[in-house]
Amino acid sequence: MDRGAVVTGYDGSEEARKAVRWAAGEAAARGRGMVIAHVVGFPPVPEAIPGGAWPRPGFLEAGQETAQRHAEAMLGDIAQECRREWPDLAVSTRLLSGRAPDALAGAAENADLLVIGSSGLTALPRLLVGSTANELLHDYHRPIVVVRAGDEPSADGDRKVVVGVDGSETSREAIGFAYEFADRHECVLVALHVWSDLPLEAMAVTPTEHDREIIEERGKPLIDESLAGYRERYPDVPVHRVIAVDRPAHALAEQAEGAALLVVGSHGRGPLRRALLGSVSRAMVHHAPCPVAVVRHHKG
After folding, report:
1. Into how many domains does the chain fold?
2. Is a pLDDT exceeding 90 seen at residue 44?
3. Does residue 192 sit within a domain?
């Protein structure tokens, strides 16, 4: 379904609205169509009804029809809003049914990108990532961008994209995604490598100038090797290399202040590299001050 499109989920919340608008801008920049999807949920079994008793005949059908009419109107309104602001963008809507994570993943099976709000109508904003977002982050196999209601686009001028660099294959794919985004949106690329192979108590001490020189000497070759090939492919993208001695999540969040996008691999070279979503990428989805793209490594 919708091969090459940018797919986004919408449930009527402010977080989802911000995600849809972010997706529209990205789809327009890519020259792709956008699909706005809504998943209709309604109690299908007695256990979902208070008291566990079967409802009167026709109750479920009437409720489903009401939910569908509401969803269609909601999708129509947000689609029109996007068409007004991006008149050349091809916008379509999809009304889905089933479990939200499964339905959205299925709708975005052949998409270029899936964009979601971090939480919906029932989650705590900016604190918790909703259950649908969490499941998609663990299971969806293509790049996914998480947008929160508080994530405002940075002003034109010194726009930047931040990407974490750790030498892993997943990090390489994240770098490619970040370069493409920076090239499309005329952003500066900030390539951040965090020197975290030190005890926590050592990282609490401010490094001396000599320490910094040694750390940079060791970190620069890793960054240069990781960026190799991309610099030639995207010669117009300015690149700032940053090497920090810090906890990775803290350093990424600090660099991401005012960024248009933070790009991380789904897992890196640390002890949790085999997890479906590593500790650093998980922390960024919860706490980063800007939209976050999570990119997976595909073997082959």
Report:
1. 2
2. no
3. yes
Whether 154 is in a domain gets the answer no
Span 180-184, average pLDDT: 96
Residue 199 vs residue 114, higher pLDDT: 114
SS3 of the chain: the string is CCCCCEEEECCCCHHHHHHHHHHHHHHHHHCCCEEEEEEECCCCCHHHCHHHCCCCCCHHHHHHHHHHHHHHHHHHHHHHHHHHHCCCCCEEEEEEECCHHHHHHHHCCCCCEEEEECCCCCCCCCCCCCHHHHHHHHHCCCCEEEECCCCCCCCCCCCEEEEECCCCHHHHHHHHHHHHHHHHHCCEEEEEEECCCCCHHHHCCCCCHHHHHHHHHHHHHHHHHHHCCHHHHCCCCCEEEEEECCCHHHHHHHHCCCCCEEEEECCCCCCCCCCCCCHHHHHHHHHCCCCEEEECCCCC
Q: Domain containing 206: what range?
A: 160-295
* pLDDT value of position 247: 81
Is the pTM higher than 0.85? The answer reads no
